[in-house]
Protein 1
Amino acid sequence: MKREKIYRLFSRMPTLTTERLLLRPMSTLDAYDMYEYSCREDLTEYLLWSPHPSVSYTRDYLAYVESRYATCDFYDWAVTLQSSGKMIGTVGFTKIDAPHNSAEIGYVINPEYHRLGLGFEAAERIVAFGFEKLELHRIEAKFMKGNDSSLHVMEKLGMTFEGYHRDSMLVKGSYRTIGYCSILKEEYEKNKTV
């Protein structure tokens, strides 16, 4: 995949839809909705970042995100409910490796909306975008050991668990074991026809 294709697709962050969700660019107007979940320690236990200390901190972060969209090097969408417009999380590509036609996805959903299949629905749409629009060969995802709900989403996406890297990341002062899952384009296409 050529870098030019990435810039072309993300020069204006595309809006994507699912049955219940609208995936759109994040904005500082999302500060209260994002803070509602980003301030929670139970949510950030398995994430690389710490709870947001205030709404103004969240608003500053979203202003930074808006500036990153302008440079076409940030690939995360706001996950919003079509029914209300409420932002309930984020989903997107944490990195895109253009020379090797691969990418890594990540997702965060407000715990108030867990167990409704919304994280899977959002991630499934991003995987489809990756294979169909970016023409990726491989999409992977990582999770911290113990985060069984994230692993469940990955398995539901048709990803294969590849194993753990023991104590491979220093996160908030502790070494964490990281699990890896992936799906290849041929597997995605086979799953689509089943």
Note: The beta strands are 16-17, 21-24, 75-81, 87-97, 102-109, 138-144, 160-171, 174-184.
Protein 2
Amino acid sequence: MQRRRISWPAATAAALVVLLAASGCGASAETAAEISGAGRSAQYTVGELTDYLATVDPDNEARAPRAAAADWLTDWVFFSAVELELADRGVTVTNEHESRSVNELTLADPEFVPGAAGGDVAIRQRAVVFAAAQWAEQEVPAPPVSAVAAGLRYLCSRHILVESRQDAELILEQLAAGADFAVLASLLSLDAASGSRGGDLGCAPEGSFVAPFEEAGYNAELGEPVLAETQFGFHVIDVAGAGPPTPENHPHLDDAALEQLAANAEAAVQQAAQAAVQSERQRLLVDLQEAVLADYASRVKIDERYGYWDPEQFVVVAAPPG
């Protein structure tokens, strides 16, 4: 099935203000749309749809089938199906979700009135989105990061990049004879950016460089230049510090610099952990949506006056004007 109804990464801020329907007070008992689940069902009445059409299409006195009706019923079916699926998974759309919906809808449109022009249903649809997002957050909680951050390695190094192994070995010989690393880097390195800084690459968290470079760097003795080959060429690497941010691993850094490195490590781990969590939550929400599209496509009934149900696309198709 191709249809997608929610951009889940931005679900809690989705612009659902336009999805307005009537609250149903005093509406006709005739059913315009119905969807059923495992022991549960939801109905949308003809009276409610008529009130909705009166709001969005006031010139349509006969309330004949229109694209607006088909689009609205499609949205109603989808959000109702999501709510039924959430209920099957033990998730309830609460008053708290609805209160949050009221707050956000009112903030987006100061003239929004919960009980007018279908506002109650708009509130419910947004509340369904909030409930789904909260469910995903509960299923995939954010992990603690302090222990991981403490073990994050940093490589503080400088390098000289050349084309051939022969050039790199010649540089190693010059360094062993007392040549200045920074001067050679500024004169010979093919990496112009670091070369202008004497080859300095700063202190970078593990994973910042290609694997052969990092393997050579983390295995090097501090202050003893080593050679590494990567897809970029041959590197002469001089390591000032390597490993988690401790005085033993980074003797060239003072206490303030070490503290900053540790803070950077925690921030980096936090960012990576949050990205992983968001990715997993996104996967759950996509799975939820796929389940809705697959399981409820055959459980929808639409009054033929307003169109017909296309289960393959999960949409109501407007009937031709009568």
Note: DSSP finds ten helices and nine strands in the chain.
Protein 3
Amino acid sequence: MSKHFTLLLVHAHPDDECSSTGGLILKSAREGHRVILITCTNGEMGKMEHLGVNLDPDSEADQNRLGEIRVEELERAARILRISEVHTLGYRDSGMDGWEGNGHPRAFKNADEDEVVGKLVGYIRRCRPDVVVTYNEQGGYGHPDHVMANRVTTEAIEAAADPARFPDNGGEAWRVPKFYHTAWSRSKMLRAWRWMKLFGQKTPLDDPDFREDKYGTPDAFITTRVNIRRYLRRKWRALTTHKSQINGNFFWWFVRMTGRWLYNEETFVCAHSQIPVRDEEKSVFEGLP
């Protein structure tokens, strides 16, 4: 009988769990592994045009209402993905780099890092995950909340293993065996955007200051490729549960129209492992005893 492990994912916003890790989550749940999701913000700075209700994007009250809607969407998506536990930290969405929301005192990017690390340490020690997944140091594409998620998760993994740090958070110290960053293949991402342009869709390629090295992960750095072909339909169903953000926009084209050809796998970079990692893994659980 194969052993069942615990997978802990730290994401920044509702819908992030589907886009970069939905297939991994579904595959892990189907194989009997315990899947725990921590979402750091409520997504208040997301899109409002697909809601079917009249909300003002400049109104903080309406932004907060959007956050409530997005958490409800997250709960529905989590059921489709068969996530074992969902925990929301409740910080405010900072918005994209350079947005006015970056300066909000409750924005996740401005949160007390020691406070956030302490919360994550508590979850790590209580849940004792075999694998933790979050974004890389650039947050995948530079989003301040993704960058913050990387920073606090990396620090929390280190702190959780040290009994002298946060001694009252979560019980006994726990050393995470394997730690991964999500990784969108840069070559596939560029190919998808070129296809989208053929259909007249706006993409980052339209930016006169576009730089390839700002987006995605060089293919040579990818250590782990998880085949999710059989889970694509259900992943799409979970993603479109986030109706406030997905329907008819850039992401619809990026995932729905190009995903079948370009994204039948989810890719990761092993950032740290207590177990020797092969040149190219097919599972984040490979090598675990």
Note: The chain is about 35% helix and 15% strand.
Protein 4
Amino acid sequence: MEIEFNNKTYTEEELEEKMKKGIISLEEYDDLVGDKMRDIIVDKARKEYADYKKELLELPKELIIEKSYETAVKQEFIDELEFSDLYIDEKKALMNRDHLLDELYND
């Protein structure tokens, strides 16, 4: 993952090294890396949600209605992911999920 900082592009590892050396603060690191991770997570969740909606459209009307709660909850998860303040470790864990919305919903 590449992140822009002070008109230069860095990897997450390079920024982490700068943080460890005291060149940037933990807050700056979290803002830079965390924001990029959040964007990736939200994009991933939105794609999964779009795929879910495509699958719904192929189902009978009755089943779509039965899945309306799941649909609303998954949309709420996307909103929460977009606007919540998660720790870097939490974001890393979410990025590694293959079916993020399904896992959140089923948990």
Note: The longest strand covers residues 2-5.
